[in-house]
Amino acid sequence: TDSFNKEIAGYLKLFTMSRYTNVKMDTAREGIHFLVYSPEKMEWIMPEELSRGTQDQIYLGARIALVKLSTGEKKPPIIMDDPFVTFDADRLNSAMQVCRQISTEYQIILFTCNSSYDRFADNVIELNNESQKTFSV
Questions:
Q1: pLDDT (tens digit, 9 = 90+) per residue, 21-68?
Q2: DSSP 3-state assignment of 8?
Q3: Which of 12, 94, 109, 115 lies 20 to 30 Å (CA to CA) from residue 63?
Q4: Radius of gyration, alpha carbons of the chain
Q5: Could you tell me if 24 and 35 are in contact, meaning their C-beta atoms sit under 8 angstroms apart?
Q6: Which of 21, 24, 2 is CA-nearest to residue 12?
Q7: What DSSP letter does each residue of 94-107 carry, written as one string?
Q8: What is the largest CA-CA distance in the chain?
Q9: What is residue 35's three-state secondary structure?
Q10: Do the beta carbons of residue 56 and residue 83 sit within 8 Å?
C-alpha cells in the first residue's frame, strides 16, 4: 500500500501541476477507494469532492501506478481509450507530458476521435470511413 500510495501521489503531482501532491488508499472501507489531501481545506477529502477532471487524473494515476507495480520488470503496452475527455487544455498538456515520460519505459497506445492529441504523438494512424470495415458472422 505504501509503494502504491507513493507511486500514485507522484503521478497526481505531475498531472495536477503540484496542486495535489498527496493521495492514499482508504483502507477503512471495503473495496479500493482513495483520499486526496486538499491544501485549501487542510484535510483529506474524497475525490468526489473535486472536479471531474481532477477525479479522472487521480484514477488515471492509479491505473498507471497499478500497471507499474504489478508488472515489475515486464513492460506491457498501456492501451487507453480516450482517457482525457474531461481534461481542459492545461490538464491535457500535463497528462501528455506524463505520457511522454512513461513512454520511455512503456509503449502507449491511445485511441481517440480527437485530433488535438496528434501533436503529442510519435505516430498517428488515422482511420476514415473508407478504410473502416464491418465484419459479421
A1: 999 988 777 878 899 999 999 999 999 999 998 999 999 999 999 999
A2: helix
A3: 115
A4: 17
A5: yes
A6: 21
A7: HHHHHHHHHTTTS-
A8: 58
A9: strand
A10: yes
